[in-house]
Amino acid sequence: MRARTPTPPPPPASVRSPRSVPPWLGHALRTQRGPVPWSAVVRGALAAGPLLLLAVLAGRPTAGVAAALGAMFAGINDRPGSRHASAYRIGVPALAGATGLLIGSYAAGLRGGEGPALLVTLGLTALLAGLGLIGGALSAIGPVASGAGTQLLVAAAAGVGMPLPEPPAQRALLFLAGAGWLLTLRLALPSPGARGLDIERAAVAAVYDAVAALLRAAGGADAVARRVALTAALDQAQDALRGPRPLRPRRSGAERKLHAQYVAALPLAEAATALAWRGAPLPARAADGPTRLAAAVRDARPCGPLPAPARSTAALRALDDALLHAADAFDTGTTAHAPVTVGAGPALRTGFRRAVGPAGREYGVRVALCLGVSTAVAQSLHHPHWYWLPATAVFLVKPDLGPLASRVLCRALGTLLGAGLFAGLAALVPTPYGTVGVVAVAGALIPVGTRHFAAQTAVVTVLVLGLVQVGGEPQAAAGRIGETLLACAIVLIVGHLPLPGQRGHGVRARLAVAARAADDYLGHVLGGSDDRAASWALRRDAYRSLAQVRAAAALSAAELTVLARHTAGTAETAARLELLVDATTATAVHLNDGPRPPAAL
């Protein structure tokens, strides 16, 4: 039977109609939506503000500044998810931030020395540029490493340029204490949807829902989009289940059962992908089984009887067998299939290769240039509190915050709004207790501000200006606006600066990784191996890598033309590779559930 090859989704268009807005501007105008995370708002209100208040009452306001900075950064990383994942997402960047603050605080002693001013300037510039090279390269490893690299560099700049009387080691400990306080609140306070295994259970249920949606879409124009959605659901469930468990190193019975239900979904996803690849519509009842399994996972109850589809083809037989195995997993809490590892994350060797590879080198050089130039310019202005300029440049150069022109625009507008708002509040509220109240309100608004970069910038600007005012620095909102605009200009220039080597390494490196993953999966399937767990792991790696290419290519396509042209065509190539992986999946299902080919051809 000849399969009908589905048409790949079109790549992000680089040609737009005259009436449409530029992609970078459209990205700047886009805002995330969803319910207000009230639990995170409460944590934010109880973090930086109360810590600063305790320090003021104890007569040590500058100590409160260091602790509140740690709490502020932890609040930025306080995203929805399980408590175990939050410990990793908040804790690792906090350790990097404390390290950066320690290094910067020790380096601050150079400014108070008796050496020539030019040598001191060159030394600090070289130090921060070197840290920028390291932090930028580490950011290529993944999202958590990116957050850690950012905190390392921003805290180092603050340590050098923010005059605090505490010794360097004490500053770093106070920073960790502030982050640890918010993490304690995250682990201790009730959080809707995060009780027990609610987050993990919802993620696994979403996988079964996505399988059902793909079966319903088989033979239709929406099949490719539904398969992409299934990949995203599997990625989210995998991340939820493999989160580190420092407070619970051994899985409970409920966790083992949920893990078995996730593993049971993998052959279902494989069979559904093969059926969608055939391009023929399926009976409506084919999706009933996964739908019932999704409800059973969500409600933590037995699945009950499941309708079995017809067994006329290999893919339908595979779907039927997968439903039977899933029903057994739901009833017994174990799975007959070999376990699939979802626990460790990227190995150290993989992370090291990403950091020293083309993408890590390119980003590291850009960060080093931005941080070095902004440091030299800031010191040449002879401003006693010059850390704002290099710290702003670090945030602006991060590609995961959006296209370059978009994030520069949002940063400038957010700083204007935040500085103006703080200037008005500072004239109305008494110091220091009124300013402490402003810091507490700003901390509460951080979880809401993360929906848009400009809003987040405005909230963080108000919070930081409040901290430095309590720490003894005079109100300097106007100066912050000028320094931010200067940082925007520096990052725009460096971001478009042609450097030796090929541009777009970040997207191309992901595409190369995805191509290798697809090739590994194809080789495993055609090699005749009976190790189905390895086959599922390779298929997951291939689809996950291709999803990362999609996201990176879409972001690059929204850049200005001078940057977007370097990655043109990568989205279409990724779509073609996804079709190859779909065909490989269909072949794997046929080989496992259909007649075997002869040993020698």
Helix/strand order? HHHHHHHHHHHHHHHHHHHHHHHH
Average of pLDDT: 82
Taking all Cα atoms into account, the compactness measure Rg is: 26 Å
Q: Poorly predicted ranges (pLDDT <50, ≥5 residues)?
A: 1-18, 244-250, 341-346, 595-601
| Assembly level | single chain
Per the principal axes of the C-alpha atoms, what is the gross shape?
globular
Question: Could you tell me the strand content as a percent range?
Answer: under 5%
Largest sheet: none
Summarize the structure.
The chain is mainly α and 601 residues long. Helices cover 70% and strands 0% of the residues.
Key phrases:
601 residues; 24 helices; disordered C terminus
Explain what you see.
With 601 residues, the chain is mainly alpha-helical. The protein contains 24 helices and no strands. It starts with 22 loop residues before the first helix and ends in an 8-residue tail after the last helix. The model is unreliable at 1-18, 244-250, 341-346 and 595-601 (pLDDT under 50).
Secondary structure elements and their pairing?
Elements: H1 23-29, H2 38-45, H3 48-57, H4 61-76, H5 83-107, H6 117-139, H7 143-161, H8 168-188, H9 198-217, H10 223-241, H11 253-278, H12 288-299, H13 314-332, H14 348-356, H15 358-380, H16 388-396, H17 404-426, H18 433-449, H19 453-470, H20 477-495, H21 505-526, H22 532-557, H23 561-564, H24 570-593
